[in-house]
Amino acid sequence: MSELVPKKVLVVDDESDVTELLDYKFRQAGYAIRSTNDPLRALGLARDFRPDVIILDVMMPELNGLQLLRMLRSDSLLRDVPVILLTARVETADRVRGLEVGADDYVPKPFDTRELMLRIQALLKRAGTSQASDPTRLSAGQIILDVERHEVLVRGQAVDLTATEFNLLRLLLERKGRVQTRDRLLADVWNYSADLETRTVDTHVRRLREKLGTAADEIETIRGVGYKIGG
Known about the structure:
single chain, alpha/beta, Rossmann fold, Arc Repressor Mutant, subunit A, five-stranded parallel sheet, 8 helices
């Protein structure tokens, strides 16, 4: 790897042969890696290690991967860390469930370590591109959002958005390429107001698309899960 500071990978899997294999392969490739076979230790380890990406097994005792993922996504320090799920369960419903909770990718067991590394490289590249961009100016296709000016342009023309619509669009642009579930959007945009339901998100997305006009298709619906901008 060319980076002066190695990227950090955290592996959580109750099978020691998996963690030992990945520990060897990732160190060989130049990553800094920590691993644990105890999911109950994972959150504390993640907060101390501050990984760039987390590899998380789904089928674990005491605390399964989806439960742990929910905890990660509700943690202010870890909520935006890319997560790849590992599991022997490969049904579509299982993959969708993982995305609903907030996973970024899904790799079935048994897995090829080369493929896993390529997927991690893709996630890290995407995250690095997002971090390198000017945080006050976000864009996708025809859309440009200026945070400081609180302004949105589509093909150079100003678009009049409500504060909520602006925050919704900003969040989707900040997490470009990552699926945002309706529940997570409710938490991050509306702070889970007690009188709101997930259909509130759909209503605001519909209105936002109407105002974006020719750029409406930049917001992609992930059926049964939520929304995203970019791929």
